[in-house]
């Protein structure tokens, strides 16, 4: 079964790292077929940024999202540019509510995660908001397991930052679980 994740925001938020980490988690640790693509504007900080992750039980013949099952939006510009790609009654939309205030009412499955706020308050840096989001994505969607994400972070993140990223992941996972009524 093919599942598609699109995450978008602006350069400097770690959107590409989010996609790579998700891909490693699903592929290496959860044993799925995976593909990841990325695009970003000419500015390394502040420009538009997007990653597509495709996860499947079968070979993947096209590496970009055709109809995202999950859309993660971490900026107003990303919302304005990409929200039209979702299926309003079916897709899951996860918003960084620190930076994106609302989505149209016709989008049914919306989860508001204050990822940047959590990162700044709990860790003193917005740089780990991407990992807060990854934890929430795992809790809400089960596209990839939480355990797989922990392994993937150890594989892709610089050793100096593994601990803070793992803690940010845990914060996001707990927040996401609280939204879907589960317990950690």
From TrEMBL:
It is an enzyme of class 1 (oxidoreductase). Residues 11-174 form the Pyruvate/ketoisovalerate oxidoreductase catalytic domain. Keywords: Membrane, Oxidoreductase, Pyruvate, Transmembrane, Transmembrane helix. One of its GO terms (molecular function) is pyruvate synthase activity. It comes from the Bacteria. The chain crosses the membrane at residues 6-29. Its EC number is 1.2.7.1. SUPFAM superfamilies: Pyruvate-ferredoxin oxidoreductase, PFOR, domain III. InterPro entries: 2-oxoglutarate_synth_KorC, Pyrv/ketoisovalerate_OxRed_cat, Pyrv_flavodox_OxRed_cen. This is Pyruvate synthase subunit PorC. It comes from Neomoorella stamsii.
